[in-house]
């Protein structure tokens, strides 16, 4: 029976979501969904010297005989090709989950081109050459949508910041592979069975990356200090649509099954969307790096699916649920503070002033924990520019429900969901066990 199951590779994402993907494909309790799983990233896991935090579930899964982790530099074409070679006695890989890419907001165009766009290009070309049955690209939510209403996959939304530009351009590069596959000797004459998953703001067990885990740490500090937590931006719509990491993983698997069955040609007919070009001025630097990008006049189409939960989360609702988890209240700074933040465009001194109280409080909580947390915790209360900036993200995800039949496992962003996350971190010693600070 196991021989009939697909063999899968997860590329990248060890510092974001691939650990949860792996735990869904090879669950601790239950039947594995794959005959073999290879996970490939630049980080070391044994010993975890380069990237120390793995999460308890993932560490327990790694010794499984169906699972293989490989540390590799995916910017090297020969290495990428080698990663697609199955181990002796294993079937060729039929599912690829591409979570690769540089997610830090302070990385330059050149780094984004090398670590995001070029890595995905190499992976996509090799997957096309190998005729994989499903190539699921999971992109990041580096977009800015209008505040009013929700926005479906047909709408052209604006990439946010440098990383948004290149993560978006990566989708065009992948969509373009099927257009030129037949004209390049090193790429098989066939299409890339590409499907794109575009989630909202992701949260969940052992997910320490992103705005929500950081805000949870900050909220816990203000609960500890018995003070209200205040948002920098004045109240408004501020949509910040959320989705649980387990839904991201499960939806990606559902899409792999779907694209394998449909094939790219039919998938484009059923769910294809035009992926609009970036502003030419935003990607001009690629020319100096000798990188060939798809012509901006070329219409590129690929199946695209949004994924958010049913909470219609906003800045206010997220803040309220987080504060309720830690027995404090949520509010907003006064008009003067928000105006100064807008005028200074979150200058470095403003960011440091904002962080001073809650970073110090988080450190105090770690030391006061019973037992104390003296080592590194993956969770931080430091809010950088990307965390503090005003976000507008409102997706409509009816399409994945209607076309693929996917049903959410965690439809609501709530304090109950957040408490379950904190409890898991406490169990592994990554979250402080403290009582609220006594009044002085």
Structure overview:
This protein has 440 residues and is an alpha/beta fold. The protein folds into 2 domains: 2-201 and 243-307, NAD(P)-binding Rossmann-like Domain (Rossmann fold, 3-Layer(aba) Sandwich), CATH 3.40.50; 210-241 and 314-392 and 413-428, no CATH class. 40% of the residues lie in helices and 13% in strands. Strand 2 (36-41), helix 2 (56-61) and strand 3 (67-71) form a beta-alpha-beta unit. Helix 6 (211-225) crosses helix 13. 47% of the residues are buried. InterPro entries: Epimerase_deHydtase, Lipid_A_modif_metabolic_enz, NAD(P)-bd_dom_sf. Pfam families: Epimerase.
Topology readout:
Layout: E1 7-11, H1 18-25, E2 36-41, H2 56-61, E3 67-71, H3 77-83, E4 95-98, H4 109-129, E5 134-138, E6 143-144, E7 158-159, H5 161-180, E8 194-199, E9 201-203, H6 211-225, E10 229-231, E11 242-244, H7 245-262, H8 264-271, E12 272-274, H9 280-283, H10 285-288, E13 301-307, H11 315-325, E14 330-332, H12 335-344, H13 348-368, H14 385-388, H15 398-404, H16 415-428
Helix pairs in contact: 1-7, 4-5, 6-11, 6-13, 11-16
Organism: Sanghuangporus baumii
Domain NAD-dependent epimerase/dehydratase: 117-262
Protein name: NAD-dependent epimerase/dehydratase domain-containing protein
């Amino acid at each position: 029976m196991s021989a009939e199951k697909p063999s899968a590779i997860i590329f990248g994402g060890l510092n974001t979501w691939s650990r949860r993907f792996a735990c869904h494909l090879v669950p601790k309790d239950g039947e594995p969904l794959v005959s073999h799983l290879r996970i490939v990233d630049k980080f070391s896991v044994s010993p975890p010297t380069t990237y120390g935090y793995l999460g308890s579930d993932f560490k327990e899964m790694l010794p499984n005989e169906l699972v293989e982790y490989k540390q590799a530099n995916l910017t090297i074409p020969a290495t990428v090709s080698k990663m697609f070679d199955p181990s002796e006695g294993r079937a060729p890989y039929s599912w690829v989950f591409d979570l690769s890419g540089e997610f830090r907001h302070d990385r330059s165009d050149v780094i984004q081109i090398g670590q995001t766009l070029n890595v995905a290009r190499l992976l996509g070309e090799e997957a096309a050459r190998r005729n994989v049955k499903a190539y699921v690209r999971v992109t990041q939510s580096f977009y800015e949508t209008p505040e009013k209403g929700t926005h479906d996959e047909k709408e052209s939304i604006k990439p946010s910041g440098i990383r948004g530009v290149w993560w978006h351009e990566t989708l065009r590069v992948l969509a373009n592979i099927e257009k030129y596959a037949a004209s390049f000797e090193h790429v098989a004459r066939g299409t890339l069975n590409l499907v794109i998953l575009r989630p909202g703001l992701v949260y969940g067990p052992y997910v320490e990356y992103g705005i929500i885990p950081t805000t949870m740490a900050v909220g816990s500090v203000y609960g500890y200090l018995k003070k209200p937590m205040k948002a920098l931006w004045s109240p408004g719509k501020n949509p910040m649509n959320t989705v649980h990491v387990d839904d991201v993983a499960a939806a990606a698997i559902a899409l792999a099954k779907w694209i394998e069955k449909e094939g790219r040609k039919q998938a484009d007919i059923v769910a294809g969307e035009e992926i609009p070009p970036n502003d030419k001025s935003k990607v001009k630097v690629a020319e100096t790096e000798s990188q060939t990008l798809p012509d901006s006049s070329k219409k590129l189409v690929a199946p695209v699916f949004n994924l958010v939960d049913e909470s219609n989360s906003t800045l206010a609702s997220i803040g309220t649920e987080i504060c309720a988890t830690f027995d404090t209240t949520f509010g907003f700074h006064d008009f003067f503070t928000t105006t100064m933040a807008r005028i200074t465009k979150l200058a470095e001194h403003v960011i440091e002033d904002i962080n001073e109280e809650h970073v110090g409080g988080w450190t105090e909580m770690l030391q006061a924990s019973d037992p104390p947390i003296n080592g590194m915790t993956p969770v931080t209360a430091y809010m950088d520019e990307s965390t503090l900036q005003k976000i507008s993200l409102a997706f409509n995800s009816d399409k994945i429900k209607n076309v693929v039949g996917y049903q959410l496992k965690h439809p609501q962003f709530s304090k109950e969901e957040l408490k379950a996350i904190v409890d898991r971190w406490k169990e592994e010693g990554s979250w402080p066990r403290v009582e609220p600070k006594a009044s002085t």
